[in-house]
């Protein structure tokens, strides 16, 4: 049931958000979008609304997206079975063609269209456009899966200066013209670092970093790099959370002011993080 607000309550909410609006106006925020928030249609609508609202109040937003479920679904339709090694998609020549088609094509343009339907101005890019992402092969057994060697920010900053929201899919090329599939978290960290972003938001399917991975009430609201490394050692940060936290640390070392790992399944979690005192998820700081 939708909650009813009085005009006074609406005014109070807006007034409470004013200091945060003032703080982020003109600042650059990179959002890594994926997981359940991307495949759940209602959540997708809310994420796009959050991004457009931030854009309207003067925040410079760069949206980095993946599209793993869509890639797997398209592969299945084409009779090709998805294979993974250590969580990374094995990407042969046929698969990279599918990845490029799905990520740089359908997923990217669907997001651009949705942002514009919500009242924003957006332009879709891939890491291939303007040579934004340059990469080399990560591991021969993975095929066309790459590690980023260079980020060219000029195409992104040009679009930001024209007051558009850049929407970037995570594929890259090498100097021989080969195309590579890039992990979305890795790409977001590299791009945010190259842009010296004020904030990198990593949307995931968990609440954040938990002291007990099975208990959401043990969420750690804020953690420094040194504290995070200590939690590696005692096993609190483990499994699939390790590469995500590694990306957070990498972004901080590249120049991002702070990074937040948040639960993208919570409606309007982006606004909760940026425009409220409590925030959402776990903030990772240099310390």
What does this structure look like?
This protein has an 8-stranded mixed sheet, with helices on both faces. The chain contains 10 helices and 14 strands. The chain is 43% helix and 22% strand. The chain is α/β, with parallel strands linked by helices and 287 residues long. The mean pLDDT is 89. The chain has helices at residues 7-24, 36-39, 41-56, 68-77, 93-117, 154-161, 184-194, 225-233, 241-254, 269-275, and strands at residues 28-33, 60-65, 84-85, 88-89, 122-126, 133-137, 146-151, 165-169, 171-173, 179-181, 199-204, 222-224, 258-263, 282-285. The longest helix has 25 residues, at 93-117.
Annotate the secondary structure layout:
Elements: H1 7-24, E1 28-33, H2 36-39, H3 41-56, E2 60-65, H4 68-77, E3 84-85, E4 88-89, H5 93-117, E5 122-126, E6 133-137, E7 146-151, H6 154-161, E8 165-169, E9 171-173, E10 179-181, H7 184-194, E11 199-204, E12 222-224, H8 225-233, H9 241-254, E13 258-263, H10 269-275, E14 282-285
Parallel strand pairs: 1-2, 1-11, 2-8, 5-8, 11-13, 12-14
Antiparallel strand pairs: 3-4, 6-7, 9-10, 13-14
Helix pairs in contact: 4-5, 7-9
